[in-house]
């Protein structure tokens, strides 16, 4: 039986096969060998090495896993300083940051907000990560949808920020 996107694998649902193939082809991040399996209720799952478990494969998760790989393999971030879905509290509300990086001193130094590839990076997305940073007070913010990546250097003292030309490496964020 031919699937909507032309894929013939009967073990995967139409939606996730098409989603997986579409996302795999369009991210502006290095490819890596991901582990994907069929989980409960026939839903696809991807292995998250940071949480040490399989998690539901969604468009946002696909971006997050690729961005995590990018940080470790291309930007020299030690895997041991990265936390996925770190809990934080803002105005008594429990929130979770997609990716939080800690420095050698044990303090957070970079927060990353990941969106699905089809989500446009708007002021609302920046406001979300800036809100998280009100309780984290990190020096670097990154927003990505897997296609576009925006990085900012935050100057808390002068209450200003500066867009960077590229995502900073680990040595840059721990200075």
Account of the 3D structure:
Residues 1-8 have low confidence and may be disordered. The protein has a domain at 58-173: tt1808, chain A. The longest helix is centred in the middle third of the chain and has 16 residues, at 59-74. It has helices spanning 14-26, 59-74, 123-136, 170-173, and strands spanning 36-38, 44-48, 53-56, 82-90, 93-102, 108-114, 140-144, 149-155, 160-164. It contains 4 helices and 9 strands. It has a 6-stranded mixed β-sheet with strand order 4-5-6-7-8-9, sandwiched between helices. The protein has a 3-stranded antiparallel β-sheet with strand order 1-2-3, with helices on one face.
Q: Percent range for helical residues?
A: 25-40%
In terms of per-residue confidence, which ranges show pLDDT below 50 for 5 or more consecutive residues?
1-8
What assembly state would you assign to the polypeptide chains in this entry?
single chain
Summing up helix and strand content along with how strands pair, one would put the structural category as alpha+beta
Radius of gyration: 17 Å
Task: Return the string of H and E elements.
Answer: HEEEHEEEHEEEH
Q: Beta-strand level of the residues, as a percent range?
A: 25-35%
What would you call the shape?
globular
* Biggest sheet layout: 6 strands, mixed
Instruction: Summarize model confidence as the mean pLDDT.
Output: 85
Q: What's the tally of helices?
A: 4
By DSSP, the count of extended strands is 9
